[in-house]
Amino acid sequence: MTFDAFAKGLVDRFRGAIPATWRPTADYELTFSLREDTTGNWLEQIPARFGPPSAAELAQLNPARLYRDVFVGRQLPVDSEELVGSPQRIAFSLWQYLLRGNARSTLSFPMIGRLAELVLRSNPLILRALRVSYAFVFLDEFQDTTSIQYQLTETAFLGSTAVLTAVGDNKQRIMGWAGALETVFADFETRFGASIVRLQNNYRSAPELVRILSYLTTALDDQAAIPIAIDDGHDGNGECRIWLFRDHLAEADHIAQVVEHSIKKQGLRPRDICILTRNRPGDYTQALRGAILARGIEARVESELQDLLSEPFVSAALQILHLAANPQAPEARSAILDLLIDFEGEDQEAVGRDVERRLNRFVSTLRSKLSESQKDPASVETRLSEILKFFGRDRLAAAYSQYAQGAFLDDTLRQLAKSLMSYLAASPWSAALKGLEGEASIPIMTMHKSKGLEYHTVIFVGLEDSALWTFASRESEETCGFFVAFSRARKRVFFTFCDSRPKKPDGPAIPQQRKSIGRLYELLKAAGINPESIS
Questions:
Q1: Which of 166, 222, 229, 223 has the alpha carbon at shortest distance from 200?
Q2: Rounded-to-integer distance, Cα 215 and Cα 304, Å
Q3: How far apart are CA 489 and CA 273, in angstroms?
Q4: Is 276 helix (H, G, I), strand (E, B) or coil?
Q5: Eight-state DSSP code of residue 203
Q6: Which phi and psi (to 5°) does residue 115 adopt?
Q7: φ and ψ of 493, to 5 deg
Q8: Alpha helices in 453-503 (DSSP H)
Q9: Digit-coded pLDDT (tens) for 49-104
Q10: CA-CA distance, 323 to 363, in Å (whole number)?
Q11: b/e 37-59 (16+ beta carbons within 10 angstroms → b)
């Protein structure tokens, strides 16, 4: 599970053990709008009964710093009398307003992380029960761990008998803006007495790409092991190129030609190719998507659907719908049976036959309801509600802590229904499901969203100063992002630059530069990769 899901599970299960001062209501609602940059607006909403900051205090206050350093930047005291000083008092007032200002408490995930840590620190029996539950703890993507998450880890497991293994890569530390702890590996090594194992083998990329990655590796982390390619290059040594264009229209036409050739001549699937941008993928690729579509190939921005499709309920619901729309879907059947047997918590042989009978009955009934005449929003939402009832809300909540409280599961169901309708309007169920899952479309996303994914070919659009506009102030983090984008590729990675590009799709063309990010071009040049002008 994610750190957030782990923390939320603790808060939801042991809410009654949270000290009364900090205890939220059972039906608390989640907010994603409480951040460093919005703290000032929240402070201005605090009613008089919660002791809001005075006008003079607000005038002298740095709300972002208060949020970062005090509001969620420190462990919560068991006793509120431990709070001393004006910043602590103001942060406490905001906490109390969010906990008690309305009938339902309002919490953000950083707040939940702090409450989860408080539950364990203030309740030895709960802490002991947690520690005997886990003999091994595996911490993935550890370089992006925040101070909140790390302190929760320490409280939960420091001094326990559990074996902790933290895996990560400082070269892929791209979440500094979200509070990733820069010293997390050193802290873990010191506090937990951990030994360091530096991994060398690269199992993903072709030899030429691994060779280039070695230059990036040295630039980002002089302690890192130089990567070794496990791919022997028998099906291609790998390719990296930088393309220079006069404008975004020439860029779109050339990339579309490359994509068409890759799919129609070289046999790649659309999902073997990924188009990345630093930000605003919709704006950066509007002309490109049109040029690709003109060649009979779909490309879509994944941002909105990526998180939805990763939800366990969504995955399970789509598998059942696949089975209902197409009886010859053995992988979907196998996955659903495994999930249902897990829910039973018993021996597979003992419950397997009964589970399969129940699944067959439900799928048969569902299949009869998936008619062309029942593709309106209300009917689609009803079908998904029936699937939810079949799995069991309580079972889903027990298996996935994010569904244990609040309206998140219902909101997810409604979002899935809405997304399905956009494909069902012009397609039968089977095609609509594949369309929603993006089986026949090239994914377009930001380089941050590509983390953990891999593709045969990666095309990074807009390696320009205006795209990586924070490079001057955050060179290390932006270079890590560049490393992440590059390392998604198995065989080919292409970077593009345009002499002019509009900021918005319908706006005027603006001259582009590559001066402030010149360091990235220098690293590629050192590896023998020089820009090529494409006419």
A1: 229
A2: 34
A3: 9
A4: strand
A5: S
A6: -65, -40
A7: -140, 130
A8: 475-487
A9: 998 888 888 888 899 999 999 999 999 998 766 666 688 999 999 999 999 999 99
A10: 7
A11: eebeebbeebeeebebbeeeeee
- Answer whether residue 106 shows pLDDT above 90: yes
pTM: 0.81
Helix (H, G, I), strand (E, B) or coil at 146: strand
Can you tell me the distance from the alpha carbon of 337 to that of 329, in angstroms, rounded to the nearest whole number?
13
Q: Supply 532's token pair.
A: 């090529």
Using DSSP bridges, classify how beta strands 489-502 and 509-511 pair: parallel, antiparallel or unpaired. antiparallel
Residue with tokens 């006008």: 55
- C-alpha 200/C-alpha 89 separation (Å) is 49
Compute the mean pLDDT over every residue in the chain, rounded to the nearest whole number.
90
Q: How far apart are CA 132 and CA 154, in angstroms?
A: 15
Q: What is the CATH number of domain 207-302+449-533?
A: 3.40.50.300
Residue type, 242: I
Q: What is the pLDDT of residues 12-64, one digit of tens each?
A: 889 999 999 999 999 898 888 899 999 999 999 999 999 888 888 888 889 99
Sorting pLDDT into bands at 50, 70 and 90, what band is 342?
A: confident
